[in-house]
Amino acid sequence: MIKVGIIGATGYAGAELVRILAGHKNARVEWYGSRSYIDQKYADVYRNMFQIVDATCMDDNMEKLASQVDVIFTATPQGLCASLINENILSETKVIDLSADFRLKDVSVYEEWYKIEHKAPQFLDEAVYGLCEINRGKIKTARLVANPGCYTTCSILTAYPLAKEGLIDMDSLIIDAKSGTSGAGRGAKLANLFCEVNENIKAYGVATHRHTPEIEEQLGYAAGRKVTLSFTPHLVPMNRGILATEYARLTRKVTAEEIKEVYDSYYGKEKFIRVLGTDACPETKWVEGSNYTDIGFRIDPRTNRIIMMGAIDNLVKGAAGQAVQNMNLMFGEKESEGLELVPMFP
Predict the structure, then answer these.
(1) How many CB atoms lie within 10 A of CB 167?
(2) Of 107, 127, 230, 317, which sits 20 to 30 A from 47 (CA to CA)?
């Protein structure tokens, strides 16, 4: 039985971790860390856990926690994990960080985009970027995994095979992405109030969103060179979901059948990536509540562009589900254990 500790268990991603792990045959949550709700019953914070979780919220004492569990999930704001982690902790337990603290290899890029000092740059080289379908081998032997963000997971997986095969001009890549409001976290913010979000759609972080360098770095590895792209996120009035629509010029003339073969060669055996037929486009409602990524595409011969589309649930494949998938790899479990979540509809 894998003993699990969660720091940030009462945020949306942390709560999703609790929900998923409740159905995991070989893992048990031992520590529900929440600085905001110390000594309060977890089921009083999330009533969906009434008579399911009989535990009290604890603090974020990572040193103490490390000696009691096999893996720690940190579902916390940027900067916290880096401020707490050290060699003693990593010698006792594995860490899966859901923040951005260890996703970027260049500390100066992290500090430029996140506007905070990195407290543990000595672990950046060791940290493995936890995109399971791409870094599976490295994840299996990792002590520290940087769980990708929601926009980045969707954006990278959607374009990765074509970037890797040199089929798209990376200098022309534009990513237009939409997210449900849970992606902004559970904290009270004026911009996320019902009357601000309902009956509205808006772009935000235009040309400045912090997931941009993460997408560029990972697709740069795929393309074998530095990548600079345009990424624009939008907030839409729904609870869950990410839809990324990506545009790029083709580097040569290809048919839809050839593109489908490329996607299938990369993802055909992947449990959690579903490459749609050429007559279907991804929709968030068909992945909601699941760990699936749905990917589709269209070739536009008039403009010599390809339109790539991807959809995920931002709290599952974009956060907690992917984190559990990483945990399964790190502990030799069946990769899909606890994640056989059929998408919810309606």
Answers:
(1) 18
(2) 317
